[in-house]
Amino acid sequence: METKTSRIFGLRAILEAIKSNNSIDKVFIQKGVSGHLMTELMTELKRNNLAFSYVPVEKLDKLSKFNNHQGAVAQIAPIDFHDLDSLITATLEKEEIPLFVLLDQVSDVRNFGAIIRTAACTGAHGIVIQKQGNAPVNAETVKTSAGAAFEMPICKVDHLKDALFVLQAAGVQVVAATEKTTDTLYEVDFQKSTAIIMGAEDRGINPSILKMVDAKAKLPLKGNIGSLNVSVACGAFLYEAVRQRR
Predict the structure, then answer these.
(1) 191 and 244 Cβ atoms separated by less than 8 Å
(2) What are the residues whose beta carbons fall under 8 Å from the beta carbon of 92, sequence distance 6 or more?
(3) Given 3.40.50.720, 3.40.50.360, 3.40.1280.10, 3.40.50.1380, which CATH number is that of 84-245?
(4) Architecture of domain 6-76 in CATH?
(5) In this predicted model, what pLDDT tens digit does every residue of 26-46 receive, in sequence order?
(6) Dihedrals φ, ψ of 130, to 5°?
(7) What is the pTM of this model?
């Protein structure tokens, strides 16, 4: 499968894309560039809580294929993101037990793509990510997901805590996949409406998020390796939910 990631470059073009509500995944900004349009762009990025990072001009030259980028290149997501409230409402209307996956800043696109693929194969109803800090939905993500990124609803939220409040208010239990517990995933009742949180590859789930969850669970591990790859661990949790719901 080949998927081209759309990019736009130039300050005015990116500003118009933001104002037109395009699905902008991330904006790359050249270090040291200033001016009225750049100030306006930065204001819009922060106001809309869009992900951006400062990069050297060489990266922008490569991304824009040496066109006149004016110090900024935006990456457009190949999918449309879903509204979380609408997705929860639509899921609750189905005669199925809701199952969601929340990702707390999983940053590797291959892990992200693998999680999307497994979520689709296990019948999950959606994936929730933060606008900042998560791996982008780009061509590599789509390829790793084997195309599941086009089928699996993905929601972007300003803060993961907000998503927890919304889900819990809708009667969805939030289960954290973490080693910071004595309970295993086999002790969790996945026959209830459930949202599973997976943490970042390096630090796991944010402590402030852990304080909000309804349950914590870990995978039993043998041998000398202390943890599993996040996409593998997510698969184990999702398939335990499938097993219990059969």
Answers:
(1) yes
(2) 98, 170, 193
(3) 3.40.1280.10
(4) 2-Layer Sandwich (3.30)
(5) 899 998 888 999 999 999 999
(6) -85, 155
(7) 0.85
